[in-house]
Amino acid sequence: MPYLKGKYNQKENKESVQIFRGINAMRRMFLSLLKDARKNEEYVFIGGQQHELAKELNIKLFDMVNGILDKNKVKARGIAHKSSQIHRNKTWIFNNMKFVSFSIPTFTVFRNKVIIYDWAEVDNALAFVITSEKIAEQYKNLFKEMWKIAKK
């Protein structure tokens, strides 16, 4: 019986995948993700090369996300393609950024969630939210390795 009770009381690994299509859905996804963000939590992201059509969208979404992270004192770090440097805003919390000159995938890791997204075509913006401790840890490790080779 003690063995069964121990198994029953173990925390379940709740893993899931959600898909968000369109700009408004992605905005709601980020708002939901960050609604209860707390001081000193870690938020990391890797942003791919900017596409002309998506630059305005990226800036609007980044401004929204930045405001939430800044207000809640979340520790944010990012890596982006060097083409993104011209879009840096001095008030962004994303000033803790590094840059690379090669093509990279676009993703965000916050808590046990990994968001893989593509907004190269504004009308077809797409995000996959993976909820998994193991996968989030793998992506955090990828980020840490990329951080070592990226440049300020």
How would you portray this structure in words?
The protein has a 7-stranded mixed sheet with strand order 1-7-6-5-2-3-4, sandwiched between helices. The chain is globular. α2 (23-34) packs parallel to α3 (55-71). By secondary structure, it is of the alpha/beta class. The N and C termini lie far apart (57 Å). The chain has helices spanning 2-9, 23-34, 55-71, 133-149; strands at residues 16-21, 42-47, 75-81, 97-100, 107-110, 113-118, 126-131. The protein has a single domain, classed as Endonuclease Chain A (Endonuclease, Chain A, 2-Layer Sandwich).
| CATH homologous superfamily identity | Endonuclease Chain A
How does the overall form come out from the CA principal axes? Answer: globular
What is the distance, rounded to the nearest whole angstrom, between the alpha carbons of the first and last residues? Answer: 57 Å
Low-confidence stretches: none
Architecture per CATH nomenclature, i.e. the level-2 architecture: 2-Layer Sandwich
Task: Count structural domains.
Answer: 1
User: Share of helix among residues?
Assistant: 25-40%
Beta-strand content bin? 25-35%
For the biggest β-sheet, the strand order reads 1-7-6-5-2-3-4
What is the CATH class? Alpha Beta
Class computed from helices, strands and strand pairing: alpha/beta
Topology, number of strands? 7
Biggest sheet character: 7 strands, mixed
Q: What is the tally of helical segments?
A: 4
Radius of gyration over alpha carbons?
17 Å
CATH topology: Endonuclease, Chain A
Q: In sequence order, what are the helices and strands, one letter per element?
A: HEHEHEEEEEH
Mean pLDDT: 82
